[in-house]
Amino acid sequence: MVAATGLVVVCSGAVGAWALLCGVMLGGRLRAGLRHGVPELGEAPTDWRLPDEALDRIGLGDAHENEDEARRVLILALRSGEPELRVASVAALGRLGVRHEWAIDGLIEALVQGEDDVVKVATQLDRLAPRPASRLVPLLGHPSSVVRFYAVRLLGRYGALAGRHVPALTADSSPNVRAAALETLRTAASGEALRCALRLLDDPSALVRAHASRTAAAIAPEAAAPFLVPLLADRSWWVREAAREGLVAAGREVTAAVSPALDSTDETMRSGAAIVLQDVGLVDELTRDEDPAQLDRILEAGGQRLRAAAGDRALRGLRLGPSDPLVESA
Questions:
Q1: What is the pLDDT of residues 63-103, one digit of tens each?
Q2: Residue 144 and residue 138: Cα distance in Å, rounded?
Q3: Is there a domain that residue 273 lies in?
Q4: How many domains, the chain?
Q5: Beta partners for 319?
Q6: Is the preceding peptide bond at 175 cis, omega within 30 degrees of 0?
């Protein structure tokens, strides 16, 4: 009972999780494990191990007198065969991670194990940023694509680390990991990130092509425009929409890159190009132009619906703009 009281003091911030763990202790489920101790972190049954240099030294000299016991109980619960114990342990480790390195190591172990909802584990690690930073990089080489995916996503918080290590993951065997790498690199806005995005515009996975479109457009919209135009005819609606959004976000400057697509033999390409030029405001601008040839070319490519929409806006005195969906005409 003294040990249990000490554990509650140590983990006072995780009341719900500790209520479950202490209940199990009093029921006798953990007694055998406590008598015989538990393995140190990194000794869970798995063929994969973090490199030794990736694990920080754990210093407990000035900690609460029952911290070692708390650590033992939590790690034992984390490795339990009972889901409710593992979930409770993750919650408690997340609270303790703000002060104790061993708690962060426990969360890394939980992410690697992948026994339960890894989203909850990843959420705890993300909340503890920047403390888990150095522990995430070794996970990029984990054999599980799920672990690699979450490691890449979590590295989005760490620009320098992501810039050094994430580009290699754009060549990962898993499309989910490649897409996650592109999303993480979006905030890096580096030349290497742009090169990775442009290279993956023809990836076999539609998910990856869509992310590549958004990343390229976010980093260098005008430079990426000629590479995005062909995707207006992609076989996937999601990719076509990502390309359209990226081109529209670049504004009127994409007109030169998009206009040649109005004469494409592909109807989808023509329609997509017309919609982009409409959404950047060019169609409504041309309604006031004395030379209707360019306007007719866009309307012809866009079809009856685009023509009707343009006429309706003209009658109502509205026009589309590159940043606002609808703005009043001057």
A1: 355 778 888 888 888 888 888 888 888 999 999 999 999 99
A2: 12
A3: yes
A4: 2
A5: 327
A6: no
